Amino acid sequence: MSDVMPSVNNHLDKVGKGFADFLTPPPEHVIRFTVGQPDFPTPDSIKSKVVEALDAGKTTYTRTGGSPELCKSVSRFLNERYSITADWENIVVTPGCKQAILYALMGLGNPGEEVLLLAPAWPTYDAQISLLGMTPVHVPCTTPDFHPDFDALEKAVTEKTKFILINSPNNPTGAVYTPDEVAKIVDLAVRHDLWILDDMIYATMVWSEHPYVSPATIPGGAERTITIGGWSKSWAMTGWRLGFCAGPPAAAKALHLCQTSAATHVPTFTMDAAAFALFADDDRMPMHNAFKERRDVIFSELSNIPQLKVRKPEGAFYIIIDIGGTGMDDKTFARRALEEADVQLIPASLMPGGEGFCRISYATNIPNIIEGCKRLREWLVRVC
Ligand SMILES: Cc1ncc(COP(=O)(O)O)c(C=O)c1O
Fold this sequence. Notes:
This protein is an alpha/beta fold. The protein has helices at residues 44-55, 68-82, 96-108, 123-131, 150-156, 179-192, 249-262, 271-277, 281-303, 330-341, 366-383, and strands spanning 31-32, 91-94, 114-119, 135-140, 161-167, 195-199, 225-230, 243-246, 309-310, 318-322, 343-344, 346-347, 357-361.
């Protein structure tokens, strides 16, 4: 047998594992503050549309971007809820928001180009950018609010910069960028001729006074913004693998081409359900209200732990805690919290810019939140 083997993609060694090391399902008695998915089932009204579609024989190949009805529903949703103008023909419904981000990077970027990330950033961005032979440039946000640092962003731009990727409401920080900040992001992108990738998957989950604002609604923004979202979080549909992207015509053509080559389309029998879900507010709102209530509970519980510093999350279902007062680094904190307090959380240094913080997902019920915070409080009294 020959020792010589065909090589693998030589960018792979730069592709990180994200949160994997800290996401291992723990024993049942552990309070799991790690998983970024709603603990609700998909509403029955949405599920029943799949049964109807299967019974109606919707099991064949169909249009790459998704059925016209589905794309029109996404277009109407973006327009009515966020004032984003997206022609239905410029929308591609993808296998998850994750794949939509990949298409945008693949379809519009080239190896060697740089992508600005507002750090700490969801680790998949770094992994996808690296996988494609591009370079992630992590630009730390201001602390403690984790909003964009425009001086740092300006300094990070080089002649290789091609994209700025934003995510508001934000995973992991819970920040929601203000309208003024979004306008400044558009201004930066226009001046340096960058694409804006707007991952707005948590856009329905805003708890701050200011709303989610799309860069595509700011003058100069529409022609350079790819709006990327999905069904996973707001409609409790993580396993369905449904996301979307929308952009100006030339970009939309590239996104369609990526999907044609990579996936053909999402499963035909999920399309009616996805179209229906976007306006199924009666089913979505109880989950929305539960997350809002949990955010108040977790903020108040964590505020009672003197060794930790927290800010009220502005959106999504994450809260980032400053663990500097414990004298531990964040990985030690996460490891010991699991071993000694039976609480699983994510050390934020798994993302550049997150050093000294841990992320808690409050997509779990209120008794769990109260018990998890109690365990952290009692443990820190013992060890600090
Ligand atoms: C910021 C962000 N974008 C995208 C996703 C992935 O969404 P999807 O399940 O639609 O691929 C997640 C999931 O955790 C996320 O936090």
